[in-house]
Amino acid sequence: MVSRPARTVAIVAMPRVIALDYSIAANVLGGHPGYELMVCGEPGPVAAEQRVTIVASHGLAALARADVVIVPGYTDPHLAIADAYLDAIAGSADRGATVVGICTGTFALAASGITTGRQVTTHWRYTAQLRQLYPETTVIDNVLFVQDGNLLTSAGAGAGIDVCLHLIRTDFGVDAERLASKDMVASPARPGPQPQIVDVFSPPGADLEATRVWAVKHLNEPVTVAELARRSSMARRTFIRRFREQTGMPPIRWLTLQRVLLARRLLETSDWSVERIANVTGMGTAANFRAIFRRETGMSPSTYRRLHHIGAAPGEARSST
């Protein structure tokens, strides 16, 4: 892996900050050696919910040198936020920093003006209010998180963990994300489009987890929707509907993302050729693999390997063939 300096993460200690959202970002990102964490706010203690007090380690001016700016949720998001906070958030976005709004933190991003004409999400209880207050922002309902360029916004609580793990995966690779999720005793980041809430419980025997586990073990094969439906004992249309309800996406899209995840891990942990990885991940030819990988990650396999390669994983044979 190419050696590079730690990325600076600034958590904004907003007035009325939600302690859980703040602590999620502090623990998930603060526990990773690739990040240098600072807490930014106006001078003095910040009163959070549940009688928690947070004291900023840096002033708002420090946001000017942050690579990632995290805005945790805060109570009463319809109330005004001081211009000093909004100006610092807007300035960070304008210079290209990654700006993350967790839960109602999205309201501060919108109030700063950086979400106009862009897609965001927030906790499901607040999507209608966000849409009403900021009609020029496209609010996506019932998803875990949304990325639009350098903006990342998530739902509340558990979705904050997902978006932080997504950041680690983006910055340091799939294996780094797996280690971070293991430390958190959490699953790797769930896909952003996955629903925040599911109103209909799965009837007995209808859960699709076993089918998904089987599919992941057979990514090198031409897995079809018909085969997945058969293994789930469902009609094809019923299976597609239930799969979308549980994952937030169609089966073929989910399979593509799983193949790309496997390819990322192999690029990170092995010296396998592009042709071999294309075959193992079920993406066919090297040319097809390169096209899919670039579409999904924004970079070529060789560039990804140069940035994230960490050598062979324990027990994995290294090969250049």
From TrEMBL:
CDD domains: GATase1_AraC_1. Residues 209-307 form the HTH araC/xylS-type domain. The keyword GTP-binding does not apply. Gene3D superfamilies: 3.40.50.880, Homeodomain-like. This is Transcriptional regulator GlxA family with amidase domain. The lineage of its organism: Bacteria, Bacillati, Actinomycetota, Actinomycetes, Pseudonocardiales. It comes from Actinocrispum wychmicini. Keywords: DNA-binding, Transcription, Transcription regulation. GO terms for molecular function: DNA-binding transcription factor activity; sequence-specific DNA binding. It comes from the Bacteria. PANTHER family: ARAC-FAMILY TRANSCRIPTIONAL REGULATOR, HTH-TYPE TRANSCRIPTIONAL REGULATOR RV1931C. SUPFAM superfamilies: Class I glutamine amidotransferase-like (SSF52317), Homeodomain-like (SSF46689). It holds the Pfam family HTH_18.
